[in-house]
């Protein structure tokens, strides 16, 4: 298996053996398993007892209640749950866009209070600026890098677009791009900043099945790439098959207010095939938590 | 006002439905309405007054003229609304009504009218404000030109007290106007539009993703006067920019020209009514108008044109950044909106007398300053409200993107906010400039017939129009007005004494041609370009 996201799956399996995760226990902050000094997985994102409620008409309207999740290095974490359970809100708290009313989130030990450029976000609705070309949109993503020259930014942007397969489409406007291509620009923009954490909010749900499937495979191979600086991916999804296909670990939230209901390492070996029986077993298992 | 409104609605329903359902009617009516909408209405008002006053003398006549004018100003907007609404009825409903074997009248009642209701209600709010503006202005002009007062009217009172420098009376009238506007808005218009909402097809569009939070404030932001100014610039502009076959477009232009010529004849005939002397009006007289006549009209036109544009420039400098800033901050927006709306709902021409004492400090430029301020106050709201709406309709995740990429404020303005409001800004500008032309006619020259004006500018087409209507002579002798403007009056009265129909015709005609031509040549292109490049469609 290639390095980069080197031991994708292996750490998780070991953890599953060492702890009792996978049986639906709510203790989702799995301690690093003992006896595995070499591949001691280090936490990248620590969500610690996060709660969020809105004040509405003198009453508190809870959205998330005491959510604790840890995302480890070289791990593809999926967060899922029924509609309205607060998944998007949780992701935005991790991104630093929303402040929790209780608890905190840490990135490599430091609390997240505002957005950081090493934590990048990919949106469900792409959010490209319609008046900028693809390459300008990616360069816009580099706005925070004042230290770079325009030429250097252009170079980085061109590389990023090439990586997502949009070479030749640099000077096309979003209005002229298909949904899949727009999302690729979104991905390129996120990758251009060389983030350590990638957050994705249902990135494929606005696309048709074929395009979504293709993008899933492409983004996975991008992350597997040894040169990728990305250490952790946290993604939100509704699509159970997508979760089983991509995730190392799936965290399930309950309906509003959102609490962690399950933290399941998915120990299927890669590459994963939808036709395999174990795959279907996992799908059924996840459904049972979501229903 | 109410009379005019009722007539407007009835007229609009008839015309709008006809236009929406009948393709041939549509081809003629829509371009016609577009032209009518862009013609500065106040320019034609003198003719209307004099024409009607000849037929129905006395106060009743002037009242009728005022009503007609307000009707004119209100109708086009509502008409377009009906047209839009009927056109967008899902075909299924239309098929259903045909299948049910209903007669035409029944269909109108059961389908078309309910379908148009929400649009009518929405546009009524706008039209009401527009009508109010014209009410004030027309009452002002009526008093000024014919010397006959309409029976009752707050515009009349404002004008009279303003002229007489009766401050207390004037300010109390003004205050009354504001209060009346606000109360009327909340009691009638709001209820009307709420009631009409239930007739909407499909989802009633609500605020943004924060809807449940905004519900507390929704009575401010949703049913608010700001809707008054969120006018789409005559569906006519978009109608013109829609892609049509060459033939169709040629037809539109041909119709336009035909219409202008017809208008010219109409205007000339009306002017004829004004003539007391033996001077008979014919086409050759118009055509062979001495170069001297033309020249000063064009000069006046040029001055007015420049005037509008420098005031526009100031409006943009103020309204664009302020609008964006306010719209970006929820709290500021919610607290300021009611205030801004109240100020905006007062027709700027009503404020003219109030401004005069203050602008005296500018000495010889006082008239110019007053005119500029009145025009500014007439224009700025359109730009302001449209820009604010442009920001508020941006999707929330755009702001999330901005924050997650750590974009600085300067970068955000350049890359996000300014491009994002581009279409709304152009829309607002088109309407603003249209409003400016109308405001100009009152702002450039404000005074009673036969007397020295309260305020006037050096040169301007509005001034020419008003003076040409008034005439500078009383009983054949030069009056105070003449004394205030000897050169201009000299040129105007060269042909006859009481008022110069020829000059008036030429002045109004040239202004109309300029406005319509500008709309076609400039605005249409700009609008097309901006919507193509900058429109935010997800």
Explain what you see.
The complex is a heterodimer of chains A (291) and B (538). Chain A is an alpha/beta fold and 291 residues long. Chain A has two domains: 199 residues, Rossmann fold (3-Layer(aba) Sandwich), CATH 3.40.50; 69 residues, no CATH class. Helix content of chain A is 31%, strand content 23%. Chain A has a six-stranded mixed sheet, with helices on both faces. Chain A has a four-stranded antiparallel sheet with strand order 2-1-4-5, with helices on one face. In chain A, β4 and β5 form a beta hairpin. The two termini of chain A are 35 Å apart. The N terminus of chain A is likely disordered. The longest helix of chain B has 43 residues. Chain B is 77% helix and 1% strand. With 538 residues, chain B is mostly helical. In chain B, the strands form two sheets. A two-stranded antiparallel ribbon of chain B has the order 1-2. In chain B, a hairpin with a 2-residue loop joins β3 and β4. In chain B, α3 packs across α6, α19 runs parallel beside α20 and α20 packs antiparallel against α23. The radius of gyration of chain B is 24 Å and the shape is globular.
**Strands of chain A, total number:** 10
The helix fraction of chain B, in percent, is over 70%
The portion of residues forming beta strands of chain A comes to 15-25%
CATH-derived topology of chain B? MetI-like fold
Number of domains of chain A: 2
What's the oligomerization state?
heterodimer
Cα separation of the termini of chain A: 35 Å
């Amino acid at each position: 298996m290639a390095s980069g996201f080197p031991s994708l799956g292996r750490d998780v399996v070991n953890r599953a053996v060492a702890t009792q995760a996978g049986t639906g226990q709510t203790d989702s902050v799995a301690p690093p398993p003992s006896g595995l000094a070499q591949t001691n997985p280090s936490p990248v994102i620590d969500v610690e007892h996060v709660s969020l409620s809105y004040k509405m008409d003198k009453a508190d309207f809870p959205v998330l209640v005491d959510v604790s999740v840890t995302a480890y290095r070289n791990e593809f974490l999926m967060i899922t749950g029924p509609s309205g359970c607060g998944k998007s809100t949780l992701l935005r708290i991790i991104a630093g866009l929303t402040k929790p009313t209780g608890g905190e989130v840490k990135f490599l030990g430091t609390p997240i209070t505002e957005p950081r450029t090493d934590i990048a976000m990919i949106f469900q609705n792409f959010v490209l600026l319609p008046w900028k070309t693809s390459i300008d949109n990616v360069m816009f993503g580099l706005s925070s890098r004042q230290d770079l020259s325009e030429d250097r930014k252009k170079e980085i942007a061109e590389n990023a677009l090439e990586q997502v397969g949009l070479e030749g489409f640099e000077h096309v406007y979003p209005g002229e791009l298909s949904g899949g291509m727009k999302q690729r620009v979104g991905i390129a923009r996120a990758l251009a900043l060389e983030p350590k954490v990638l957050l994705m909010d249902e990135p494929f749900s606005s696309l048709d099945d074929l395009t979504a499937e293709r993008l899933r495979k492409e983004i996975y191979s991008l992350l597997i790439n040894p040169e990728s600086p990305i250490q952790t991916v946290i993604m939100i999804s509704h699509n159970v098959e997508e979760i089983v296909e991509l995730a190392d670990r799936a965290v399930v939230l309950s309906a509003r207010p959102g609490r962690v209901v399950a933290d399941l390492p998915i120990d299927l070996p890669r590459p994963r095939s939808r036709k395999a029986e174990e795959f279907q077993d996992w799908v059924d298992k996840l459904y049972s938590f979501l229903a | 006002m109410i009379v005019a409104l009722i007539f407007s609605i009835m007229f609009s329903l008839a015309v709008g439905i006809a236009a929406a359902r009948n393709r041939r009617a549509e081809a003629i009516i829509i371009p016609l309405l577009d032209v009518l909408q862009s013609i500065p209405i106040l320019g034609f008002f003198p003719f209307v007054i004099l024409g009607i006053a000849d037929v129905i003398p006395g106060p009743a006549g002037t009242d009728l003229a005022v009503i007609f004018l307000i009707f004119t100003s209100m109708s086009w907007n509502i008409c377009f609304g009906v047209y839009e609404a009927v056109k967008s009825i899902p075909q299924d409903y239309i098929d259903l009504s045909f299948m049910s074997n209903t007669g035409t009248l029944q269909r109108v009642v059961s389908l078309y009218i309910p379908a148009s209701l929400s649009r009518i209600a929405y546009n009524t709010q706008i039209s009401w404000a527009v009508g109010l503006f014209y009410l004030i202005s027309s009452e002002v002009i009526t008093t000024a030109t014919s010397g006959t007062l309409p029976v009752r009217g707050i515009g009349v009172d404002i004008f009279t007290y303003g002229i007489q420098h009766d401050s207390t009376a004037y300010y109390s009238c003004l205050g009354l106007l504001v209060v009346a506007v606000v109360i009327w808005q909340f009691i009638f218009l709001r209820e009307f539009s709420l009631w009409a909402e239930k007739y909407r097809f499909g989802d009633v569009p609500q605020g943004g993703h924060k809807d449940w939070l905004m519900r507390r404030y929704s009575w401010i932001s949703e049913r608010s006067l700001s809707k008054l100014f969120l006018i789409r610039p005559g569906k006519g502009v978009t109608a013109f920019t829609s892609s049509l076959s060459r033939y169709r477009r040629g037809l539109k232009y041909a119709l336009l020209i035909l219409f202008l010529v017809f208008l010219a004849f109409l205007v000339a005939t009306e002017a004829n009514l004004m003539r007391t002397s033996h001077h008979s009006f014919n086409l050759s007289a118009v055509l062979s108008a001495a170069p001297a006549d033309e020249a000063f009209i064009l000069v006046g036109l040029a001055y007015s044109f420049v005037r509008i544009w420098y005031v526009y420039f100031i409006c943009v400098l103020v309204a664009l950044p302020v609008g964006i800033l306010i719209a970006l901050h929820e709290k500021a927006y919610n607290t300021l909106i009611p205030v801004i709306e109240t100020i905006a709902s007062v027709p700027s021409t009503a404020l003219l007398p109030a401004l005069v004492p203050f602008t005296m400090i500018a000495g010889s430029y006082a008239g110019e300053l007053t005119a500029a301020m009145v025009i500014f106050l007439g224009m700025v709201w359109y730009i302001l409200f449209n820009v604010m709406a442009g920001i508020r309709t941006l999707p929330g995740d755009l702001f999330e993107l901005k924050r997650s990429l750590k974009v600085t404020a300067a970068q955000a303005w350049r890359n996000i906010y300014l491009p994002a409001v581009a279409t709304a800004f152009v829309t607002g500008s088109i309407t603003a400039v249209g409003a400016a032309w109308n405001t100009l006619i009152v702002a450039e020259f404000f005074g009673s017939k036969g007397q020295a004006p309260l305020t006037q500018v050096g040169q301007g087409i509005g001034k020419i129009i008003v003076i040409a209507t008034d005439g500078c002579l009383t009983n054949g002798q030069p009056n105070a007005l003449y004394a205030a403007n000897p050169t201009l009056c000299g040129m105007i009265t060269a042909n006859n004494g009481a008022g110069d129909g020829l000059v008036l015709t030429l002045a109004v005609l040239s202004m109309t041609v300029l406005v319509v031509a500008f709309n076609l040549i400039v605005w249409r292109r700009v609008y097309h370009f901006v919507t193509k490049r900058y429109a935010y469609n997800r």
